[in-house]
Design goal:
Layout lengths: L49 H7 L1 H20 L2 H31 L19 E5 L6 H7 L5 E5 L9 H9 L7 E2 L12 E7 L8 H14 E12 L3 H7 L9 H11 L1 E9 L3 E8 L3
Parallel strand pairs: 1-2, 1-4, 2-3, 4-5
Antiparallel strand pairs: 5-7, 6-7
């Protein structure tokens, strides 16, 4: 968002997501808190496009470009098999740079992801009282506040530099500050009261929790803060064929579809909807029991 999304990959594996945002950690679940006023967020920040992704992941782009350049140079100096290997390396690096950049442009600059036009398919009545959960780069709170100005919004920042060590997250964190009113939190301690919210939104944020125990804790907290019938909206790239085809080894930074389904079911949420965006992003709606 980051992003993410979490995004670019060069030749070696790495973080292709748009990194996602947050702040200091909290000490435990908080009592109900006042909402963030839309007046504090005068203009929505758009979801990361190619330029932003390149800023956060520039070492990967630099490594890919250098690999391609070195491969081309060596292929001109060498002969036989070594020259062929150098050419293959240069082509592979160029191919990954090209495919990842085009994929990022399609998802973050051209698709309906930015407009949130896909959301009514999963939340026909809108997000209502909602919590935005970020872990490095908050790209959801401003667009949601702009599109649904009458909804009460809280924003939680789970960023923990000791756990979130990806270079792209650190760079995004330095460049983009949390929005005013952002509340500190932890995966096991979201800053909201029990059964307080209609929706929890995790936009390119949950995959930055690398430890399964932290992801499980987050899903459990989502159940705690959601009202009966409330929805966890999870938006992520997946570790699947489509993402691997364009991001190469970088797709291993993402989680599989089964991972998210298992976390949801384990927390007591049921899958209520699923929407593919630009062929590379999946939005899940996981619902808490109405009983």
């Amino acid at each position: 968002m980051t992003r993410t999304p979490d995004a670019a990959t060069a030749t070696a594996a790495a973080d292709t997501a748009t990194a996602t945002a947050a702040a200091d950690t909290a000490t435990g679940p908080a009592a109900p808190l006042p909402s963030q006023s839309p007046s504090q967020v005068p203009s929505p920040r758009r979801l990361s496009g190619v330029a932003e992704v390149a800023r956060y992941n520039w070492p990967l782009y630099a490594a890919g470009s250098l690999t391609a350049a070195v491969g081309i140079a060596l292929s001109r100096r060498l002969t036989g098999t070594p020259a062929a290997v150098a050419r293959i390396g240069a082509l592979a690096a160029t191919g990954l740079l090209t495919s990842s950049t085009l994929a990022t442009w399609c998802v973050y600059d051209r698709s309906e992801l930015r407009s949130l036009d896909w959301l009514p398919d999963l939340l026909p009545d809108g997000p209502g009282d909602h919590l935005i959960v970020s872990t490095g780069l908050d790209e959801a709170s401003l667009p949601f506040a702009a599109r649904w100005p009458d909804g009460r919004q809280l924003t939680a920042d789970l960023y923990d530099p000791d756990r979130m060590t990806e270079g792209s997250i650190r760079r995004a964190r330095r460049k983009v500050a949390p929005v005013p009113g952002t509340l500190p939190g932890r995966p096991d301690a979201l800053p909201a009261g029990g059964a307080e919210l209609d929706t929890v939104v995790c936009l390119f944020s949950a995959h930055e929790l690398r430890r399964p125990v932290d992801r499980a804790a987050l899903f459990g907290e989502c159940v705690r803060v959601l009202r009966p019938g409330g929805t966890l909206l999870l938006v992520e790239h997946l570790r699947d064929t489509a993402n691997a085809a364009v991001y190469g080894p970088g797709a291993w930074h993402f989680r599989t579809r089964r991972t998210w389904l298992d976390h949801a079911v384990g927390a007591g949420l049921r899958p209520a909807g699923e929407r593919r965006i630009a062929g590379l992003v999946t939005a899940f709606a996981f619902r808490r029991s109405a009983g």
